[in-house]
């Protein structure tokens, strides 16, 4: 059985997604080391196959080291954002005047295309603009869009490493996707692509 659970974490309320496939778990964007998230997984005997980051900004990475230590699981991300893990300016924790967030876990890198992590099969979609390595995860009919696409909006491009030109190119990806897919963004409510294609002004630029 497949299931998606959402944990809203941290001061900027990032959506951390916990994907279940039978008793296996894949964690997307753990913004903080949530004791509730870990207790929920542990109480159900979850086996964590890995952690996947959509990008390297502070609000998406803050819980990585604690989860890796607890579950002894690998970390995956796009290589273009690897320097963000160890640079508080690049990951924007320094730029925001917040306590610096540094990740010590060494990541493994995913290129665009189909991948298998444990029991999870998904497509990794490269979509730079919000950051150089920004990527999305398509699992069946569910797209985890990170900070590329939100309900009615898109990710900002004024942080270090943002690029509006690249973002415009990345937004064209949505024209080629099945409009019936559900969008699970990095912040805010779940939406669907058909609605965003009709109503999101940034998809009609």
TrEMBL record:
Coiled-coil annotated residue ranges, if any: none
Q: Which InterPro entries match?
A: MBL_Glyoxalase_II, Metallo-B-lactamas, RibonucZ/Hydroxyglut_hydro
Q: Which residues form the Metallo-beta-lactamase domain?
A: 13-187
- The reply on keyword Metal-binding is yes
The record's keywords, sorted A to Z, are: Hydrolase, Metal-binding, Zinc
SMART domains reported in the protein's UniProt record? Lactamase_B (SM00849)
Keyword GTP-binding found: no
Q: Say which domain of life the source belongs to.
A: Bacteria
**What name has this protein been given in UniProt?**
MBL fold metallo-hydrolase
Q: Which cofactors does it use?
A: Zn(2+)
User: One GO molecular-function annotation for this sequence?
Assistant: hydrolase activity
């Amino acid at each position: 059985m497949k299931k998606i659970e959402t944990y809203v974490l941290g001061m900027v309320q990032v959506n951390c997604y916990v994907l279940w496939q039978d008793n296996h778990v894949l964690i997307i964007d753990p913004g903080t080391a949530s004791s509730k998230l870990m207790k929920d997984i542990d109480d159900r005997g979850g086996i964590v196959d890995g952690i996947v980051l959509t990008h390297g900004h502070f609000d998406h990475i803050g819980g990585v080291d604690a989860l890796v230590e607890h579950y002894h699981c690998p970390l995956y991300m796009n290589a273009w954002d690897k320097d963000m893990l160890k640079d508080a300016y690049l990951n924007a924790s320094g730029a925001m005047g917040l306590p610096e967030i540094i990740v010590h876990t060494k990541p493994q890198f995913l290129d665009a295309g189909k991948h298998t992590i444990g029991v999870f099969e998904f497509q990794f979609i490269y979509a730079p603009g919000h950051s150089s390595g920004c990527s999305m995860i398509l699992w069946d009919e569910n797209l985890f869009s990170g900070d590329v696409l939100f309900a009615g909006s898109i990710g900002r491009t004024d942080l270090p490493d943002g690029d509006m030109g690249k973002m415009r190119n990345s937004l064209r990806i949505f024209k080629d996707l099945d409009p019936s897919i559900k969008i699970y963004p990095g912040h805010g409510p779940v939406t669907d692509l058909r609605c965003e294609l009709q109503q999101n002004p940034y998809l009609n630029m």
